[in-house]
Structures are given as structure tokens and as C-alpha cells.
Amino acid sequence: MEHRFAFLIHPFDRRDIARKLPALAALPDPTLDRLLRHLPPLVADRIDEVTGAQGVKTSGWLVGTPLTSQQLLELPWPVVYRKLLAAGKKAVRLGAKVLGLGAFTAVAGDAGVSLARRLPIAVTTGNSYTVATALEAADVGARWMGWDPDRAGWVVLGATGAVGRVSVEILASRGRKVFAHVRDDRKAGEFLQYFRQRGLEGSIEMDHDVRRILSRAPLVITCSSALEAVVQPQDLLPGAVVCDVARPRDVSRQVADYRPDVLVIDGGLVKVPGGYPGTLDLGLPADTVYACMAETMVLAMEGRLEHFSLGRNLTVDRVREIAELAKKHGFELTAFRSFERALTREAVERIRREADFRRGEAAPAQAEDMGTYLR
Fold first, then answer.
1. Whether residue 200 has pLDDT greater than 70
2. Smallest Cα–Cα separation from 311: which of 196, 161, 145?
């Protein structure tokens, strides 16, 4: 039996609205904000058929809620909740059995918990597969740049969020040194207690200062919910590898212009088996979706009609489980991209050479074969 899915999306900002709804671009900001608060959810795309490696099929819809990232974070929660619930109910009426929460719809409020209580279908943020793919991509990138992922230190920005916390836990459980960026003192105490109970506090150091913590280690997972870039060119060590999972991105585009020695990977991107059949431009290659959407598809294919990734306390077991299920159905890391552009072998080699020069190495060490994941 085919189970269908829906995935909830939203415009990131005014520019995003102008691209998709140009008639609204001329409205003054206050007028546009009021209008978006009252627009109903809409079907943004119909995804006809995705066939996994096991021959299991699924299909679904992209359901759009018109609130921007800033509105989802700053409007009163009851207002946001009503908008998300309306979109969820639309997904139910369409016939979806699994609802995935995309971008800031997975961050707002309690990260899907309240929606799951009110909707008669499964709900997931997709964050478990986002973690699995981000860590896999960062490991590959580290080896390309000559780092040993088990010995070089790791920085996690947004460490108290859903993606950040379980990323820290997985890295620390592998015996890796982790520098966790924690801004809030209250959350810092809860964060430390969580890892003390698991016997992992010796592998973790916390800091509230972004620049200072980025100076401690070269391998970075960044997954904050900031509305503006938090990582600037001067913040990163020579030869740093950054897997940017956040959308909007955490890494300033100036890093690409002023740090030719740094490898930035757009995190959380997944290749869909047989190609992605949607027609809405996601700003990605034709065969690629975000890992959170891929998790939603995988759960539908597997018939796992249950709440999977919810709230801010994801589990290591769920991350491992969804990674195995995705592999079973033929989902995998897509060819790597950096600032929306495909990474080529030549580009990575240039970055590596520049990094070796800035680190004062006379000759580059042998990097892992770079044929995989490159265009």
C-alpha cells in the first residue's frame, strides 16, 4: 500500500516572496506582514511519484504556509501555531499520512510537539536524518582537507538546538573533542547536566562566544536558528571544514570571497533515488532535496506512520535508524555543494593547497580520494 506524505515549507524572507509571488513585492513591509498573517496555506507543488531502491513508491505535496522565517520566530506562538495547524489540516485533507516540517516550521514553538498532538497523522521535523547526513558529509570533507576526524577538534554552533545537541552527543560518544557553542546560561546548565548523566562531559567544552570557540578547532557543524550569518571570514582556522546545516545559512558568503583556504559544505542535502519529480524550484539540483524532506519520504515508504523526530531532544538511536532506512530505500548524500554551487575536484584541490600553505606545510599530505560526492 502506498503511503503519501506532505512537507511544510515557507518563504525565508521578502526576497523569497518576490521571486515566487512578484505581485506582492511592491507592498510596504507592514502591509505585506499583515497580509501574510492572513493568507491561508496553499499547495505549492505536487510530487507525483518517488520510487525507492526496494521498489516501494510514495507521492505527496509541498504545502506552503506564507509566514517568513522572522515571523515564525517572532510572532506570538498562538498566531504561529494556528498557521501551522491550518497547514497540517490541509495536508490531512489531501490524504497525507506523514507530515514533514521544513526549515523554521520545525524550529518555531516546541518543534512539532503541539502539532503532533492535534493532527491525526504522523509528524516529523526530519532532523534525525539531517544530523546523520551532516556528520557524514563533515567527515568526508575533513579527510579531503587532510584532517583526522577522530583527532582534530569539532565545533558545534547551535549546540542546544535539536540538531546541535544530538550532533554533540554522537561526536562525543565517538571519543572526539567537542567545543559546544551555548549562548544561554540556563540552557548551559541543562546542557552540561544532560551530558554528565551520560558520562560524556569530559569530551565537551562550552563557550558563549562564537569567534572564540571557532578558534579552538578546525571542524565545524553549524546549525543555529539565527536569521543572519554568524560565521565571518576572520573567525575560522586555516584549512577549516564547515558543514552548514542552517537555512538561512550560518556562514557568511564573504567566507567564499576572502577565505580560499576554507571548505564550506552545504549540509543536509540528499540524492533522491530515481530523481526528484517535483516542479517547484527548491534552488537545488534536479535529483536533490533537503534531508528533512527525505526523512519524510523514507518514513512514508517504510510505512512508519508514527511521530519520528519531534521536539528538541532527538536520540542517537533515531539518527542511526533513519540513516539505515534511508540507505535501504536508496537515499544517499548528493554531490557536494558550497554556497549553492557544485564542488568540483579542482575546487577542493585548490582549497587544500591554499590551506596547506597557510598552515605552513611544505607539501600537502595525501588526501582521501575525492572522486566521490564531487561533480
1. yes
2. 161
Question: Which range of residues forms the domain containing residue 11?
Answer: 5-126+271-332
User: At 109, which helix (H) or strand (E)?
Assistant: none
92 phi/psi in degrees, rounded to 5: -65, -45
Contact indicator for 145, 351 with CB cutoff of 8 Å = yes
98 vs 143: CA distance, rounded Å: 36
Assess if residue 145 is contained within a domain. Answer: yes
pTM score, two decimals? Answer: 0.94
* C-beta pairs of 72-78 under 8 Å, 24+ apart in sequence: 72/10, 72/104, 72/105, 72/107, 72/108, 73/104, 73/107, 73/108, 73/225, 73/227, 75/37, 77/108, 77/109
pLDDT digits over 253-295, tens only? 999 999 999 999 999 999 999 999 999 988 899 999 999 999 9
pLDDT of residue 139 exceeding 90: yes
CA dist 359 and 230 (Å) reads 24
pLDDT of residue 247: 86
Q: In three state form, how does the secondary structure of 136-156 look?
A: HHHHHHHHHCCCCCCCCCEEE
Q: What is the pLDDT of residue 10?
A: 94
Does 61 fall in a domain? yes
Count of domains for the chain: 2
For the chain, counts of helices (H) and of strands (E):
13, 16
Rounded to 5 degrees, φ, ψ at 204 are -125, 135
Q: Which residue has the cell 496555506?
A: 41
The closest of 225, 226, 222, 263 to 244, measured between CA atoms, is 222
What does the pLDDT look like over 20-74, one tens digit per residue? 778 777 888 888 888 888 999 999 999 999 999 999 999 999 999 999 999 999 9
Residue with cell 515557507: 10
